[in-house]
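INFO worker-7 received task bundle
INFO bundle size: 2
INFO processing item 0
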Amino acid sequence: MRLRKLYEHPIFIQLVVFTVLIGIVPLILISGFVFYKMADMAREEVMDSHEQVILQYTDGVEEKLRQYQESVIQIANNTIILKTLQQEDSDAYTRGRRVSEEVVKSLLLERKTEINSCMVYSTLAQNPIYGQRASMLKEAAREGWFQKKNATQDGWYLYFATGQQENLMAIVKTIQNIDVNSYRKEDIGIVKLDLNIARLFAPAKQEKNTSFQLILCDSANDILYSSLSDGGVNAEQILSAVDEQNTKTNGGQTEKTEVSTRRKKYDDVTAVGSYLVQERRIQDYGLRLLFLFENNEMSQKRGEVIRWILPWILVLLIVIVLGAFVYTRNFSARVERLLQKFRYAAETGDLTVQEPISGTDEIAALDRQFSQLLKQLDRLIQKNYIQRLENKETELKNLQLQINPHFLYNTLETMSSIAAVNQVFLICDMCGKLGEIFRYSLGSSDSEFVTVSQELHHTENYVFIQKIRYGNQFEVYYSVDEGLDKKLIPRFILQPIVENAIVHGMERMTTQGTLEISVTQKEENLLIKIEDDGVGMDQEQLQELCRYIDAPDIKEKKKRSIGVRNVHQRIKMICGEQYGIRIRSEVYRGSVFEIYLPMR
């Protein structure tokens, strides 16, 4: 209905609308694709920058932790500290001062703000030691870290320092003395290095486009540090959202089994509030790091893409509209001029030939034909043809109703004769084949049945004409079992099926197609098989076609494969419900139409 309403407008408006739509639709599709690709590139660029920041940060933290571990090992292996802990010739405070001096020298405590404290605890009760950086292990029993399981084993763990309420990381190392005579190891003390987590993990000030916030958790998902300021989304909400996303991604597992600090997919990002959250783990220390980047950075990149693409879209749109307007205006002006000639001649009766429309297209051709028509009408009017036409009008109508197929035969014979005189023998052959088709289709025989050979001959005539039309785009092969060429079948059942195979199966092929027609006997039935290697149909199209040809009635006025349906319905009416057409098809492998008929 909308299309019909469009036809109510002048052709100028129709052409403008059509041209603009044809230009705008691809423009929108291409612009959408370009925007998507550029937005994706911008996203990758942002993610790459985030990845570089994360990699730089995690490498720095891991390097610091490694250095502190090495420092603790150096203290535990310091020969002066080992000898001092075992000496008995000095008092406890002298030994403590000596050990403290060695600890300060090893760590350079004045220069490293991340270090909260470092203590050496002796387990040798016979050699007590007390100092700023040294004490007896029994004194540590009052501290919270001493209660931790395996506190005196190599490794590290986290705890809250009493009274300070600051998250600290303790690196603990056992001090062992090796007896050179017996090669036996003896535990004589412990080195414990306390690191301030807030200072150790605080993000360094970055440029605005690479700044981030950090949330640090331990292996139990307890938050140890957060650089988020008060207000907005808090650390607990972000951690909960990331865990929920991980649960969905990993099928119910709340933790990822393998997360590398150096390998991370760009799409493994969780959006929480105004942040894009990316997760990393430092496996050796059981730490979980959540990096929070401002989400508006991605929006800014997307906005830049839009600001770059939009002007080009507007320019192209203006060019399309102006081009459509100029072209259609010129075209419709020529159509309007031709229409004015028609209207002037019809309304005034003036048959004078006016100035011709320039050009060689169809409009100019129509104008020339119309001018020629005006000249002929003018001559006929001068010979009083109008009066003769009125007298013969009734007789002409009667003669038109009496036209029979003989007129068509005579016309074809005339065309064939003219072609033969001009040595265009292909037209002679076409006229001959077409005449046989007319005789077969419009013949006077009242019989509903013909022999297989007659039906095949009619099909061969049709195929001959179609091969001329399609330029030998396909080949047809026939196979009839012995004794079946005289069997009777309903008239005109092969040509519609063959036409369907050519038009819908092989017309769109770029290579030469093959059509095979075979007549065989299957049990007590006659089987005619039409098989092509054309484009075929998918299962949905095949089922729709089968339902269509089997339906007792259809409401649609226009439907594809109407010839196939008519043949199928005729066979069922003439031969019975158990007979008819069965179809098999596969996409790009062709279709097979099997016609089952009773043996007659």
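INFO item 0 finished
INFO processing item 1
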Amino acid sequence: MTYLVVHDVVVVGGGAAGLSGALALGRFRRDVVVVDGGAPRNAPADHVHNFLTNEGAPPATLYATGRAEVARYGVTLLDGTVTAAHPIDPAHLTDPAHPATAAHPHDDTASPHDTAMPHDDTAQPADPARPGDQAGPARFAVTLAEGRTLHTRRLLVTTGLVDELPDVPGLADRWGRDVLHCPYCHGWEVRDQAVGVLATGPMAAHQALLFRQLTDDVVVFTHTAGPLPADEAEKLAARGVTVVDGEVAQLEVTADRLTGVRLRSGVVVPRAALVVAPRFEARAAFLTGLGLTTEDFVVGGHAFGDRVTADATGATGVPGVWVAGNVTDPQATVIAAAAAGLKAAAALNADLIAEDTERAVAARRATAGRTGDGAGRQVSGDRGTDGGPGTDGGQVDGGHGTGDDAAVDEETARHWDELYQGRERRWSGRPNPHLVDVVGALPPGTALDLGCGEGGDAVWLARQGWRVTAVDVSTTALARSAAAVTAAGVAALVDFQRHDLARTFPAGVFDLVSAQFLQSPLDFPRAEVLRAAVRAVAPGGRLLVVEHGAVPPWGNAEHHHVRFPTPQETLADLDLDPDGWHVERLDAPQRQATGPNGEHGTLIDHLVLVRRR
């Protein structure tokens, strides 16, 4: 079974604008995917210029460095081509029959924000089948050429443009080397050389005067543009620029270097470089499904191509879609495109924050209406805890959950509190993948989340319609969980309780009891807690136990001697009545994961799933 992933932002185009925007968004802890076709506009050029601190860098080097930098902040990079983008109705995101999602409900990207387990440095892996930790609904479906569909809350388009070159034999082969267009990008490299300007439109005289600053040997070939206006001809003459009439037939190349321009008449004018004015065609055909079309790019009353129009921040006429770089500003240089990407990302992020805040306010008001006081919720717990790590020194008040603070062991609470307080965010915020795999097909009911941590599982369960009791010992973890469910708009479905599971256990029975990585480096009565979990399962309900099966490849060497209980041993610890229980799964699934420092490896988990008859 597959599950929908909704990203915060999909960036289409991995050039300077796209990577710059992705970097800013990644640093804001956004779930970002960059899709790039690997064909940057400036690929034929040898170097990038006027990019402060990167002057003269080869384009490929600049982009490789940029990709490495954004990857450090958890941005997912996909090689591919986007062929279509469409708006989707958030109400249908969980309906597999809806055409917006049925075509490809599985998105196998995942954010590598995942961080280490507290006691073995195990990274929570990026899993292809688990939904994202989005706080808001998807607005757009983005289709790739291979057939995959990505779902996203916002779209940043940085696809750039295609230069349509004059149809002169031999010209395209020299593009980016000795056939040029931008004096700021390439002028210094042809200083004091014989430069030609091919007139195909009204920019020829302007280009010639710019290059005249760099060399005193400039020739304008009128080609198909016809005679120059008298005032322009006068300016060129005053600056010593020669004008040659007649159509250009081809370029002359010797030893892989431009040596001349041949006219239809047969005359060859020696030149070392040729300047052209290509037509700019925005790479934006895939946006038509969003109702976005291109408009003429007009300078001085003349159209030089097309572009996607936007405001000063890059926001288009379609809410949620931003553009940056050459797709909207054909004249932007590499550094200008990078700056535009940052500016658009900042505006886009502010828009997401506004939406997240609006949802949080609505959830808070709904909670206030239900409880009568609008107070926060009491919280506790996390993955691999004694019922949950962390405390911030104060209990999260409010809510209708119970729990017994007096029965909490101070040393246990301090251990998990310190672990959580050591990082602003300990976990990825995503649900545990085996929970998604097992529970995704079940009808919602009541669920008990033992060691809820920062709320990734609780949020996901509530989004599926489950009424969740989330338990942890750490008030810091519980506070973060409460914030997560509030931001997700599901606070009304989650009740937080603080328990030290070694001493107290939540009351009641549940359709699902989930114990995900309930392992601890402290003295913890694991078997007794699991048997208490058995007693908390309602008739027809299920207990899901997922534990580490081995230390990850990047784990601390001192932990590699640790022996983890097998699934069979865990099943024995449950001490089940065989007449009253059915074992549905007993296995050791493997998964690919990324460690806290970018290491890749295979993790082994131990899984036990039992159902009360």
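INFO item 1 finished
INFO post-check item 1: The chain is about 25% helix and 25% strand.
INFO post-check item 1: The two ends are 24 Å apart (CA to CA).
INFO worker-7 idle
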